[in-house]
Amino acid sequence: MKENNLDLKSIHVVIISLLLFISCSKKQEPVLTDQYKKWETLEIKTRFQTLTISKFSDSADYYNMINSNKEFKIIPESTPEKTDPEQPEHEKIFFTKAEKDSLSKYIYESVTQPKFTNVLATDYAGGVILRFDRENMNLMCEYNSVGDWTTVSENTEKIYNLISKKVEISKQ
Asked: What is the DSSP secondary structure assignment for residue 17, as one 8-state letter?
């Protein structure tokens, strides 16, 4: 009888130890909560454009630096070329609430879970700064010399696709 109790206790100890080992050995994945919904300002900045989106405004500010070097210039077709290269072109862009929510999620995920890349473009081509501002906290992720910044991650591609429906923005 005592021998059976010892075997039963041993089996219980082994099972409990095994369960603890299995549950503790799992890699803990970061949990994305709804923190991306608590934003105030989003910013997407390329070499020549800056797009600033405020949660509490009906429009976003888009600035396009017009450079005399035609190679990098992005000018909407309906806008005549400006003569002063130091004066940025300014537009108001309108996003729906759903589009703003999507951008906040993509930018939040990009800055909290950045993708590391081995791509290195020459002449510093391809860069983007993504910024997520909330109250007294700013999160930022910057990719430099990556060529086409939209290919860095699924989120950067989604950000570009959503913005490019509204305004021209450089991929490099």
From this structure: H
Whether residue 131 contacts residue 51, with contact meaning beta carbons closer than 8 Å, is answered with no
Residues of the chain with pLDDT under 70: 1-6, 18-33, 66-87, 119-125
Nearest partner of 105 among 50, 47, 154, judged by Cα:
154
Residue with tokens 């709804």: 34
Kindly report the pTM of this predicted structure.
Answer: 0.67
Kindly list the strands in the beta sheet with 137-143, ordered across the sheet, starting from the edge strand earlier in the chain.
89-93, 60-64, 49-54, 41-45, 128-134, 137-143
The type of residue at 44 is I
Contact between residue 148 and residue 137 where contact means Cβ atoms under 8 Å apart: no
Angle, in degrees to the nearest 10, between helices 97-112 and 154-164: 150
With beta carbons less than 8 A apart as the criterion, state whether 110 and 131 touch.
Answer: no
Query: How far is CA 162 from each of CA 43, 89, 106, 134, rounded to the nearest angstrom?
Result: 14, 21, 10, 22
